């Protein structure tokens, strides 16, 4: 199955916002990625008839959302590190696994590594196929 590049970009951007802490940069990227669809999907107040319909079969959409979970797991395997603040406490065994720039929901520690690039997301995606 081949996914159009703009759809792939949108899905990756959406994953970051939905599954990780939504940083400004991640939200900006989602906004930019969604912009590519502005002419293909009508705004609520516009008649749908005049807008070309996105030609993505439902089965592909389901496949993509299923892929979101797998992508998340793959990213954690590739870039996840145990939260050091969790490790200092008694809850060693259940330390939060953090991706770059992610905030630990337990203790507020923020992973200091630079935010992952879309290329890094893509590389993990490619490697898992
Ligand atoms: Zn922690």
Q: Quick summary of this structure?
A:
This protein is mostly helical.
Q: Could you explain the architecture of this structure?
A:
Helix content is 50%, strand content 3%. By secondary structure, it is mostly helical. It has one domain. It is elongated. The structure holds zinc ion. Residues 83, 85-86, 96, 104, 106-107, 109 line the site of zinc ion.
Q: Mind summarizing the main beta sheet?
A: 2 strands, antiparallel
Residue runs with pLDDT of under 50 for 5 or more positions: none
Number of strands: 2
Determine the fraction of residues in helical runs and give it as a percent range. Answer: 40-55%
Biggest sheet, strands in spatial order?
1-2
* Category by helix and strand content: mainly alpha
Outline, from the CA principal axes? elongated
Compressed to H and E, one letter per element, the order equals HHHEHEH
The radius of gyration over CA amounts to 18 Å
Question: What's the overall average pLDDT, rounded?
Answer: 78
Strand content: under 5%
First and last CA, distance: 11 Å
Ligands present:
zinc ion
Q: How many structurally independent domains?
A: 1
**What is the count of DSSP helices, taking H or I runs of 4+ residues?**
5
Oligomer: single chain
């Amino acid at each position: 199955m081949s996914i159009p590049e703009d759809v792939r970009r949108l899905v990756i951007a959406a994953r970051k916002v939905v599954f990780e802490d939504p940083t400004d940069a991640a939200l900006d990227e989602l906004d930019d990625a969604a912009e590519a669809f502005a002419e293909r999907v009508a705004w609520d107040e516009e008649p749908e008839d005049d807008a070309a319909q996105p030609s993505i079969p439902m089965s592909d959409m389901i496949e993509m959302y299923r892929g979101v979970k797998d992508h998340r797991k793959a990213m954690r395997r590739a870039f996840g590190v145990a939260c050091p603040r969790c490790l200092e406490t008694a809850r060693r065994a259940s330390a939060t696994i953090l991706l770059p720039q992610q905030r630990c929901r337990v203790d507020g520690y923020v992973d200091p590594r630079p935010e992952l690039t879309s290329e890094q997301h893509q590389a993990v995606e490619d490697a898992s196929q």
